[in-house]
Sequence to fold (536 residues):
Amino acid sequence: MINNPILPGFYPDPSICRVEDDFYIVTSSFSFFPGVPIFHSTDLVHWEQIGNVLDRTSQLALNPGYISGGIYAPTIRYHNGTFYMITTNVSHGGNFIVTAKNPEGPWSEPHWVESAEGIDPSLFWDDDGKVYYTGTTGNGYKTPMIWISELDLNEFKLVGEKKNIWGGALVNCASPESPHMYKKDGWYYLMISEGGTEFYHAVTVSRSKNIFGPYEGCPGNPILTHRHLGMYYPICNVGHADLVQLKDGSWYMVMLGSRIYGGYHKNMGRESFIAPVTWENEWPVVSPGTGRVEWTYPAPALPQTPETAVPKRDNFDKDILDYQWNFLGTPVNDVYKLEDSKLKLRTNTKQICPEDSTDVWRTFAPVEALSFVGRRQQHMSYIVKACMTFTPVLPKESAGLIILQNLYHSIRVEMLMENCKRVLRVIKGYVQLDTYLCHNYTDKAEYHQEMCNQVEWDSESVIFVLKAENQNNSFYAIDNSGKQHIIAENIDGSFLGSEVSGGFIGAYIGMFASGNPSDAEKYAEFDWFEYEGFNL
Ligand code: 6LW
Fold:
């Protein structure tokens, strides 16, 4: 069976392509580095991350920036032996294409597509060999549209007419975006999303006999949405879709969606789902019979992909980090080292969380070279354990674990010195604003840090235990004798949902070190990190 989400955790804006028996999906990555994770499957059930498309700082500049900036929606396509990934770096440079002969990489340096406005670029090869670029009109348009232009792939330049071709199914619809073009039985199909990437998200489709239009909307639009199911349907936000045809002629759609838990809370942000598609009257029908993204579907008869789950424990005994690990912002000044089978994070850098402040843009938490290495939260309940050795001395020097939705919405457990005593403490950092259904980007608000509890600790080593049972988070410390001590229990984590924090991210669980950039070089050392998920 196919089990949704096929890519659990913060893997939004999926794009899919098939090459013979192999399927590939890429997703957005915003201000996390490396960027644009790429997954492989042969059966649409089991997906293995085979790399990150943007894994060099020359491909991915993120600093300075903010956490929901950086890399927006990508598209992956394959043509005549070459893989193409096109996306937008909204913080630095705009729309660009990278190419590769192997999807695992290496991928090329960016080919910037000058004068290509907007976000959500996609590529389409027509039968006559011409290549087209579709995207969204930039800001400032009273009625945003989807536009198309021919693209010269030798020069990576737009050529010929650039034409606005469709504004979506609903009159004056919000945010027509994520366009993808397909050709079937002589029709050009333009599939987009509208309604915004949150609660009102929807997929709509139009078609034309001429690629430059005019396009007529499907009478069944929206062909997919969960907005009419109410705020407590367990899968919400579905949209931002891409279609793929199997060798046997059948079709599937990947799309983003969010799983709510503990109320209307989406801590994992937007994840990747899949659903079957059929065609009726030359229009696509998504998840025929229910019209909703279901938790499971019968798997298509395809060669099985070997199950390759990410190992529960990472002992950091290799000279590179495994694919699931991300930095926040472009890692500069070697904020980390992998040596002696340890991950070492430099403390003499910035504070992982800002000081209390009264004037923050919730979703625009700035990212710079933070001493942070994290992985996505992929389950509603999970246990994380990490073994750390650290000798804090100076004020503001600390290290530990953090559940991070963004730099203004987090819960961290850390070791530090206070009044000449080593302590372990749990701190909530949050901006008190309850917004549902959409992001109020321009909200300015107060950032607070709230001490949940702290305990004295007499050793430089500790095994942190973070236990999340739905929205209930508890923090423990295991000492050298193996005895487990309570630090803080039953902390409500629902404020870590993206509907509260705003922005486009999903929660990360990571290791961090904080200090003062002017301090002498010093590292917090992590021997191992374990993540085990449960969907209670
Ligand atoms: C993405 C746009 C969207 O570029 O949100 O899901 C933006 N919809 O299509 C960021 O994910």
